[in-house]
Write a structure and sequence with these properties.
about 425 residues, 16 helices, 15 strands, Rossmann fold
């Protein structure tokens, strides 16, 4: 519901009723009075709902006092049940407000109107995959007949929270969230669920809340396994027999995918480290030591500069585990600046510049996670919800700290110079880079 008159006007009209200027008809409780008078239509925004509750409480108190006076003057006791009904209604409104209006939540499987508003909350547009997501969500949702609201939060959690609140207030029926920090959105997403909004995680897990219906992503641990194996394959192919001098990089610690990428890669690399085939010269093997705050390429390059200066003045570095393409390019640049031979470097996202570097042999590999596939799967789920068919079935789930969340998992693919044309055969933009 939405309040149609400003709080000050609502107060004046309530005051008039209390002072007797507006009579409350017998059997009409306060909430029904406000509906009849046009104060409320449909639902109540979170801010104004609190104002309404306070005014209703004050109005109820004055009405009760008035009723007591009338009873002493011989008024019919039949008015008391109406006051009691109003008290029950007001109490229920207060409880509903405190519970974030869960009574309005859409039942499981409930559909919504064609042409509905769909919110898309992205963490930022700082890498190619997120820029592609912005464009593709806008195009595909519009083509499907929806009204998309697509926003990015520039890696600022409070900004993402505010954008999601705005999407709720603008009547979004589903909100797709690529969280900046998967642990920091519980409160605002619970508001969304209370308003009957479906919540779909995009590319990253939403953690520590029950207010999520499912997550669409490429398998994050599986992606890490692929990166680790590709690094091993590249070392053998490019550097001959080991042991190999290697350094490890991880992604942004706030991104729930980042530790999973690292975990997957280490499941492949740790046995080789234990066997002495891989030597981590710096000794930095824990994710917290290797993580790159905010996935910031400049921070990665600064760390690589430091590693090379402190550990490789008399050694050659053979390989580096990089969690994505931007960090991979920063690592390669650092090695070139230090006069090192280019090591075997992994990547992720198949960004255009890295696709060119892979084709040139400068970056050993990337892992393609086609944005068009991820967006298309998300829109497919939204269509299912709109039609009233609920979330599609999946046999994959993961616990987010509160519930087992359904996961709609897609398969990534390792891209090297040897298979690039095959992988990008249906991607004319990237195919054009292979020349």
């Amino acid at each position: 519901m939405y309040i149609t008159k400003e709080p000050a006007e609502l107060q004046r009209r309530a005051d008039r009723k209390v002072s007797g200027l507006v009579a409350l008809p017998s059997g009409l409780n306060i909430t029904m009075y406000l509906l009849q008078e046009g104060f409320i239509t449909g639902g109540i925004t979170m801010y104004r709902k609190k104002v309404l509750t306070l005014i209703l409480s004050a109005t109820l108190a004055m009405t009760a006092l008035s009723a007591c006076g009338s009873a002493r003057e011989g008024s019919a006791p039949a008015e008391a049940p109406a006051a009691n009904e109003a008290a029950a209604d007001t109490s229920a409104d207060a409880k509903t407000d405190n519970a974030q209006d869960t009574s309005e939540a859409a039942p499981a499987g409930a559909g919504f109107e064609a042409g509905a508003t769909i919110g898309i909350s992205l963490p930022w547009l700082g890498t190619q995959n997120w820029k592609e997501a912005e464009t593709m969500f806008t195009e595909q949702l519009t083509e499907a007949g929806y009204n998309p609201i697509v926003q990015a939060a520039d890696q600022k959690v409070p900004q993402q929270q505010q954008q999601i609140e705005s999407m709720i207030e603008n009547g979004a029926k589903a909100i797709v969230v690529g969280p900046i920090d998967g642990t920091q959105l519980g409160s605002v997403l619970e508001q969304a669920k209370a308003a009957g909004v479906y919540v779909i995680g995009y590319d990253r897990l939403i953690e520590n809340t029950e207010a999520v219906d499912g997550v669409v992503q490429f398998g994050s641990v599986r992606t890490g396994v692929m990166q680790g194996q590709a690094l091993l394959d590249g070392l053998k192919e490019k550097k001959g027999e080991g042991p190999y001098n290697v350094e490890l990089f991880g992604g942004g610690p706030a991104d729930p995918n980042a530790p999973n990428f690292f975990k997957g890669a280490m499941s492949v690399l740790q046995p080789e480290i234990d066997a002495g085939n891989i030597v981590i010269v710096s000794g930095q093997t824990d994710f917290t030591q290797c993580a790159t705050e905010d996935w910031d390429n400049s921070k990665a390059q600064k760390r690589m500069d430091s590693l090379l200066a402190g550990n490789y003045s008399d050694k050659e570095i053979d390989g580096v585990l990089s969690p994505n393409d931007g960090i991979g390019r920063a690592i390669i640049t650092s090695c070139e600046d230090a006069g090192q031979q280019i090591p075997v470097v992994t990547g992720l996202d198949a960004e255009n510049e890295s696709v060119e570097w892979v084709w040139q042999g400068k970056q050993y590999c990337t892992v393609a996670k086609p944005t068009q596939d991820l967006v298309a799967k998300t829109v497919e789920i939204i269509n299912s919800l709109q039609a009233g068919n609920g979330m599609p079935a999946t046999d994959v789930s993961t616990n987010n700290g509160k519930i087992d969340v359904p996961i709609y998992e897609l398969d990534p693919v390792v891209v090297t110079k040897d298979n690039a044309k095959e992988v990008f055969a249906n991607d004319p933009d990237r195919m054009a880079l292979l020349k």
